[in-house]
Each structure stands twice: as structure tokens, then as C-alpha cells.
Amino acid sequence: MNVLITGINGFVGSTLRHTLEARGVRVYGMDLRSGDDAVHAVDITDQDAVKQRIDALRPDFIFHLAAISRVDYDNPSLLYRINVTGTLNLLIAAARCLTRPRFILVSSSQVYGIVPEERQPIGERMPMMPVNHYGASKAAAEQIARVFHYEYGLPVAIARPFNHIGRGQDPHFVIAKIIRAAREKNLDITLGNLSVTRDFLDVRDVVDAYVRMMEQFPDGGVFNIASGIGYRLSDLLETIQDISGVRFNITRAEALLRKNDIAMSVGDSTAFRQSHDWSPAHGIRETLEWILAE
What domains appear along the chain, each with residue ranges and CATH number? Predict the structure, then answer.
């Protein structure tokens, strides 16, 4: 079996690669940089380059993870070009490939936008109402993927993961930022809104969900990948301080506060749990301890 992972050098892509290779799967990657023979340096906004590579590799599965994933990314044009046009190029190439691959699009819980607390946890039937460019780009990518599924019969499944954390995550993300500061004993830290509540998963549990989607491919399906538990960022900050023994001097930065911030986002993954016999194996404290021990 040949599996292609876009964004293979990233936080989730590298974990997915190691997990699949440990199962004996032949894994190839697309990323902006190549670190070995299995990873091909391809810009997914280059339609011809994407088509040539997919035609050559003829993957059985494509995991599409490549994206700009920062909600506060300050170049919307580039974000849409990569997240939307890049996805379109991959779908075109997959649909025209002689051996059509099964296509797993990794979307995001950000497509839901601001959902009232009384309507949480959020199920897949909640309308997509994004409030930031990242969420909008993922919603657009989903709609395009659905059209390829219905118009051309391309096998497509969509995962909507909620927040996830783990080793190797970019410190632009708040938990990774706090943990790096704790490990390096940087006591002065600047943070944004710590009162928000998020559904956090261990990256290993997220990757386990993706592998199960590959093994039991839900053609046309859309599934939340979530713990179903909401964690206030201030509580996780306290837990990190407790584990590490570090006490921070915290400065609140107005620049890190967003007027369209999502106060609460907790997911309902009942459908995926039931269809794929999946549940998170790692509790939040265990995950934080694992990251801190890196």
C-alpha cells in the first residue's frame, strides 16, 4: 500500500508518517522541503508539479494535511492560496489519476466558528460559520472536496479535528509556547486570552483516528475528532506550572487578544467513536507530562 501525506514534515504529518511506517505502510510525502528520498519537495499551489508527482507515485491513499494552520496568520492571500488552491490542485490530480486514490481531507473545528455554549458539544450537523480566515479556508476546501466526490466520484472523507497538542508543535500555538518556556525556565511570558475553553487531544490520538479512517474508509463521511472535554487555558497553564515546577510572570498582550475570539469550542465525536471504535487513549495531564519530558 502506498500512502501520500502532504505536509509530512509538519507536527501531525511527521507523527502520522512514523505511525504508518511502524505498521509496514510505504509512505511518501509532499512538503516544501525534502529531508529524504521519500519526501518530495513540491509546492501544492503549483498545479503541474502536483499532478506530475501524484501521477508518478500513484498513491492508494492521500492524507491532505498541508496548510497554514495559524488562526492569526497575517497574510490572507497566501493562506487562501495554500489552503484552498492547494487543496483544489490535489483534488484535480487525484481525480485524474489512473488509479484513483482515496482522499482524506484534514479540515478543522474552526469551520464552526462561534457556537453558543448551550449548543455544545458541537456535532457535525452544526452549520459551518467560520469567523476567521483559517476557518473560512477550511470550509471552502471542504465544499470543493464534496463537489469532487459528487461530480467525479472521487472517494473523499473529511476529518474535523479539534485542538491537539504534542511534541514538535510550533510555539506559535499557546500550549506549545507555554511548555517551551517551562522547559527553558523562561519565567517571563506574554499571553493572550486565558479564559477561553478548548477541546484538546493528544496528537497520538488524532493520528490514531486518521489511521482508522484509512483502514475503514468512510467514503463521503464527515467526522469530528474530539475529546468531548473542555479545558480552560488558565487551568492548563496551572497544570503545566505544577508539573514543571515553574511559576511564570505573565504579561497580558492586547496584540494577542482577538475581537472574534471563540470563547468555547468543545466537540462531539460520538459518530466517529461508534463507527470506528475509537476513543482517546491519553489524558490531558499525561499528554502535558509527555511533552514536557521531550
Answer: 2-166+202-226+268-280 (3.40.50.720)
